[in-house]
Amino acid sequence: MALIGSRKWLAAIAAICIGPLAVGILIVVFAVAWAYPGLPSIYALTDYQPKIPLRVFSAEGLLLGEFGEERRNVVRFADVPVLMKQAILAAEDDRFYQHGGVDILGVLRAALSNITSPGRQQGASTITMQVARNFFISSEKTYTRKFYEALLALKIESTLSKDKIFEIYINQIFLGQRAYGFASAAQIYFGKPLKQISAAEAAMLAGLPKAPSAFNPVVNPRRARTRQVYILDRMKSLGFLTSEQHAAATKEPLNVKREVNDFPVKADFVAEMARQLALERFGDETYTRGLRVYTTIRKVDQEAAHAGLRRAVLDYERRHGYRGPEAFVELKSGSEDELEDALQDINDSEDLIAAVVLEASPKLVRAYRRGGEPLQISGDGLKFAANALTDKAPPNRRIRRGAVIRATQDEKGAWQIIQMPEIEAAFVSMSPEDGAVRALVGGFDFNVNKFNHVTQAWRQPGSSFKPFIYSASLERGLTPSTLINDAPIYIDPALTGGQLWEPKNYDGKFEGPMRMRAALAKSKNLVSIRILQQITPQFAQEYVSRFGFDAEKHPPYLTMALGAGSVTPWQMVGAYAVFSNGGYRVNPHIISRITDDTGKVLAEAKPVRAGDESTRVIDARNAFIMTSMMNDVTRFGTAARAGAMLKRADLAGKTGTTNDHVDAWFAGFQSSMVGIAWIGFDQPKKMGSQETGGVAALPIWIAYMQRALKGVPESMPRPPEGLINVGGEWYYSEFAPGEGSVQSLGLSDGTPEGEKKADEIRN
Questions:
Q1: pLDDT tens across 294-319, in order?
Q2: DSSP readout, 628-693?
Q3: Chain centre distance of CA 63
Q4: Which residues touch 105 (CB under 8 Å, ≥6 apart)?
Q5: Angle at 21 between CA 17 and CA 24, to 5 degrees
Q6: Which residues, including other chains, have CB under 8 Å from residue 746's CB and lie 6 or more apart?
Q7: Per-residue confidence at 33, pLDDT binned at 50, 70, 90?
């Protein structure tokens, strides 16, 4: 009887325990049966099409920029390094290849941890569950969401292989800094492809999925380091790393990129132009379908243009003195956090580093730069700002504790004080054969000023426009040897479109009768005006449109002779190419082709090449003579510095300086390359009385050509048919002078004395 009684008690206890469990199981089965048919289709996974950003490349295939909400490089599972896979498994789901999508052991372990340590909640999401969440479910933390997440994980595991699920995870997961997927993160954080990362770098990346902001090595390096060490320890305990490998990885210093837009070639303005052109053609798909835009930009050319422009702008700043610190902050404790906060909204401009002054005297400045690196500036490094380091300096210009300054390193690595420029500049170069743009820099710093001065800045060209007036005059019978009077002139308001005009030469001097060739080399304003009087402004207005200029932006007044109209550097590079290539109009273009992510060509440039007679806009003889005249400009004229520094005889070009020194230009070329340099203020104002095209703009052009023409043999143009040479000068055969004759123009100033003198010269 006792045995029977004990059995009844056991049965009762079993019923009490098993009953609720059975009911629970039935409820779960019912819930699964009810919810499973309503789960979303996983077609998005079986036909995985990740959002791939637009990427812009140089002619050599180097990345210039990328655009899209998601920065992603899709990588095949087989191409993912073993170390990266192991780091992810150690960090997120070491039993991934053992469970079926939901890790029961992991759930029990997390539940136990949450009961024993309620302040440190653990989750039990597997890699498959994270894939389900990323594609189909919100991230809200509710039991319902977790239930659906688990069901979806089971469904995914029943359809896709483990390796395929892992591949989707590796490419899809968000890892901070707009990076999606580990291949993109490796490039963004470490500047290298995924296949080149070390165990230490793999552990750092594997720590990001848990909390991309909290463990971001750029924003929170200490927390990221703690997470990295934890994952390295896990990799060792799981047998993925030996003790020696673990020790080496733990000690390895990581070079984390702080500048997330650091591309191999600095071409922000080019990348933005490519983005806009792609968007016009492909619309919203531009940022998601993996378009690849290949530009005509060449690495060496772009680097030379970028460096040359920045150097010339900073040289201008040095010539005009230090304006004072950018800002002042009130330092209380001087702690690292306080200093970092002070620099939070002040970005570095490449090698122009923002720093907060900790201590300042006429002999030494100590400052703090972002990231904690101290700066010490002394000796020659203080010269530029010496006036701001004395007690006599005005308070708003004085460098003192709390001042925000800029510093840069010289060739020897010594720090020196500099300042962010107020002036802007632009440079563009292209092949005159087909219009392929080889370098384009639209301003000093794209991140500071996104206005593209190459394509958007309408400025007066000044004397750099004179060659087009001279070219027009050749078609009207004038020649390089035509004598023209460089003498004072008074222009009626009806001929200027304004008021009485008394133009002068740049140097204020007049040299009397001189040949057109010499007048162009010396950039004589009075000669250009008399040429335009002879050929008429109306003819010149029509003529210059052949070069690609807008006629309405060059009103038919005598002021056109001095470049009073409006042009862009983009127009100028195409216009000067006409002289370089023998008279053909080729349009500048910056994109060679656009492909999808598989390499299929979606669009391709089909430029017209020089030599197609349908694109001829001026006589080949005209182009040859103008090139020879502008060659004099670079040999002994206003741009003689170019010939002297480059030591080449095949250069040609023209300087340009506008009224009151508001704009400075140099437009020049060789048979294989045309380059245009401009410098000025966005809000037009005087740059300084000495800031001519030859002083301010020409150095940009020279710095570029020194590298772009390196190894390019000299190439002098050959005279075309229909030209004859008399006394060392070139003439159209139909306009050739007779023996001893002298063509003259405008030798009189209108007075009786002037007429008498002109007759003497003519005879």
A1: 999 999 999 999 999 999 999 999 99
A2: HHHHHHHHHSTTHHHHHHHT-SS-EEEEEE-GGG-EEEEEEEETTEEEEEEEE-SS-----TT--I
A3: 11
A4: 95, 99
A5: 150
A6: 484, 485, 527, 530, 533, 534
A7: very low
Whole-prediction pTM: 0.82
How far is residue 628's CA from residue 598's CA, in Å, rounded to a whole number?
Answer: 49
For the question of residue 113 being annotated catalytic, the response is no
Looking at 66, 92, 424, 691, which residue is catalytic? 92
Q: Three-state SS for 731?
A: strand
pLDDT at position 747 is 53
Residue 692: name the closest of 507, 534, 533, 549 by CA. Answer: 507
Phi, psi (deg, nearest 5) at residue 451: -65, 125
Q: CA angle, 53 as apex, 51 and 59 as ends, to 5°?
A: 145
Residue 726 in 3-state DSSP? strand
Query: What is 504-556 written as a DSSP string?
Result: --TTS---EEEEHHHHHHTT-HHHHHHHHHHH-HHHHHHHHGGGT--GGGS-S
Structure tokens that stand for 300 in this block:
């060496």
Cα distance from N-terminal residue to C-terminal residue, the chain: 154
Q: By the 8 A CB rule, do 95 and 314 touch?
A: no
Token output for 175:
């890892």
Task: Give the rounded distance of the alpha carbon of 266 from its chain centre.
Answer: 5
Parallel, antiparallel, or unpaired: how do β-strands 353-360 and 364-369 relate?
antiparallel
Read off the pLDDT of residues 35-73 as tens digits, 9 standing for 90 and up.
445 455 666 566 667 788 899 999 999 999 988 877 788
Output the average pLDDT for the chain: 88
Asked whether the predicted pLDDT for residue 7 surpasses 90, the reply is: no
How high is the pLDDT of residue 193?
A: 92
Strand 483-486 relative to strand 744-745, pairing: parallel
DSSP states of 195-228 as a string? GG--HHHHHHHHTTTT-TTTT-TTT-HHHHHHHH
Q: For the chain, state the CA radius of gyration.
A: 36
Tell me the pLDDT band of 499, cut-offs 50, 70 and 90.
Answer: confident
Residue in 58, 184, 349, 463 annotated catalytic: 463
- Rounded to the nearest angstrom, the gap between the alpha carbon of residue 30 and the centroid of all alpha carbons in its chain is 59
Which of these ranges, 148-152, 191-195, 246-250, 281-285, has the smallest mean pLDDT? 148-152
Q: Does 464 participate in catalysis according to the annotation?
A: no
SS (H, E, C) 356-399: EEEEECCCEEEEEECCCCEEEEEHHHHHHHHHHCCCCCCCCCCC
Encoded amino acid at 516, one letter? M
Instruction: For residue 173, give every residue at least 6 positions away whose Cβ sits within 8 Å of its Cβ, in sequence order, or none.
Output: 130, 134, 180, 181, 182, 209
